[in-house]
Each structure stands twice: as C-alpha cells, then as structure tokens.
Specification:
Elements: H1 2-10, H2 24-35
Length: 42
C-alpha cells in the first residue's frame, strides 16, 4: 500500500518505486487488482 501511495504522490512510474516498498512489479500488480471493478484493498 505504501508503494502505491508513494507512486501517486510523486507521479513516478511503477519501475521507479524504491525497493523499500517491494518490487515494482508487486506494486503494479496490487494496483491492477484494486483498479478493477468490485475489488477493494485489504
């Protein structure tokens, strides 16, 4: 979740998310799941 917040706050692409938030692909995958209708963050 923190990685998504960081990404949107800075406007950076997913590949620039610091490793402290996990891999960029994990951050993107979580975003992709949550943007789909009917899904909500944990």
């Amino acid at each position: 979740m923190e990685g998504l917040i960081w990404r949107f706050r800075t406007g950076s692409p997913c590949r620039d998310v610091p490793e402290a938030f996990g891999t960029w692909s994990t951050v993107y995958d979580r975003f992709a799941q949550w943007r789909d209708p009917g899904c909500s963050p944990p």
